[in-house]
Design a protein that fits this description.
The protein is mostly helical. Helix content is about 75%, strand content about 5%.
Length: about 230
């Protein structure tokens, strides 16, 4: 087998293992701390409300949503949606996640530049996620190297989005921990657990960036060789 293809398959396996490992780590950390209650006994929704009100964000609603770890901040509708477990629960993991989403709301209020850039890129990323591999497949079918490179360019757009996402997520966690400490939501031991949960979650974004870089390298390796042949 050609060395180029051996290396490309190796890159695929490494990307898969990185993604799988990161997901496994975040789920194991989350499951560990979702079983540990907090001394203040407030729920995720109550903690989120406290942080929002303290930051003059009374217009932001906190709503319950279905699923596991489906928590997110919706800047268009000004609402924080928390999974049922985190909305109603009083665990270290649930509170940490709820407060992280409040960090995004505070970013929105303060016009945090990376958050604005991420939102501006969403339409392009949505298009690129569908068009990228479609262009590559059509390019392979019609032996068009230009279409293939167009598809690779679309994958690079997705990578740029993921790179911008990194500071957004790390900053939201930093803001969350700061607010938790100010309001005394966690004691010192609980704060350590909350930091561990948010660090584990951040690693999934780092893993996504690493996997995207490896995938782009794999595509360049395969199709760059074909162009040279």
């Amino acid at each position: 087998m050609d060395n180029y293809y051996i290396i490309s398959y190796g890159l695929t396996i490494i990307a898969f293992l990185i993604t799988l490992g990161a997901q496994g780590f975040v789920f194991s950390t989350y499951n560990k701390y979702k079983k540990r209650g907090i001394s203040s006994q407030i729920t995720g929704s109550e903690a989120a409300r406290k942080i929002l009100d303290k930051n003059d964000l009374q217009d932001i609603r906190v709503e319950e949503t279905v699923g596991m770890l489906t928590d997110h901040y919706d800047p268009m509708n000004k609402v924080i949606r928390l999974s049922s477990e985190n909305y109603n629960g009083a665990s270290i993991a649930g509170i940490a996640v709820a407060c992280h989403e409040c960090g995004h709301a505070i970013q929105d209020k303060n016009n945090y530049v990376p958050l604005r850039l991420r939102h501006a890129l969403i339409p392009f990323v949505n298009f690129a996620s569908y068009a990228g591999y479609f262009a590559i497949l059509i390019g392979i079918f019609f032996s068009s190297i230009n279409l293939i490179w167009l598809g690779i360019l679309a994958e690079i757009v997705i990578l740029i989005f993921q790179l911008i996402t990194l500071p957004v997520e790390f900053d939201a966690s930093r803001r969350a921990l700061k607010e938790i400490e100010k309001l005394g939501i966690f004691n010192s031991e609980e704060m350590s657990g909350g930091r561990e949960v948010l660090t584990a979650a951040a690693l999934t974004y780092v893993a996504s960036v690493a996997a995207a870089i490896l995938e782009i390298l794999r595509l360049i390796l395969i199709f760059g060789k074909r162009e040279d042949d």
